[in-house]
Amino acid sequence: MIFNGSPKAGGNTDFLIDRFMTFLGEKDVVKFVLREMNISPCRGCEKCSMSGRCVIKDDMHDIYEKIEKYRFFLFFSPVFFGGVPSILKSAIDRCQPFWARKNILGKKFKVNKRKGLVVLIGGTSFVKGYECAALSVKWLFNVIDVAENKTFYYMNIERHSDFLNYNIDNDIYKTMEFFGESER
User: Fold this and answer.
1) Other C-beta atoms within 10 Å of 176: how many?
2) Which of 37, 45, 67, 176 has its CA 20 to 30 A from that of 184?
3) What confidence tens digit (pLDDT) does each residue in 128-175 have?
């Protein structure tokens, strides 16, 4: 599963995802472009603590279904003020039903050996901002039992040409190796 957490179409996050997709291919890859989806913020109603299901009717239910079935998760996001953009944070917050299932209702995921990748893109070299942004996604990984994860930081990226300062092909190779190309 690929999550595009950027609110900007055609920006650096889209550029990098397109680059990864040329190697990963479209087969067996589900991509969620969150800016194109109807995702409401969590209301904090705690109804998911009773049923393990969210009562809000929107596009998150498709995401819930896929999270339960998939093993590999790739989150691509720009860094905004040391965090992920609100559209990605809302989707993460809406995964509260998984937390409730795991911690209150005692239900475990049927799919195991999950792996995740966090890819963060920003216009600064302030590492702490990237680390803070990564924590939001890693918190979700903990909740959905993604035991193994890696993080890539693409810093000082203002335009697509700034990616030339990175060996993206090598990062893609490392990603495919991490996820185990034969296991996809």
Assistant:
1) 15
2) 37
3) 999 999 999 999 999 999 989 999 999 999 999 999 999 999 999 999
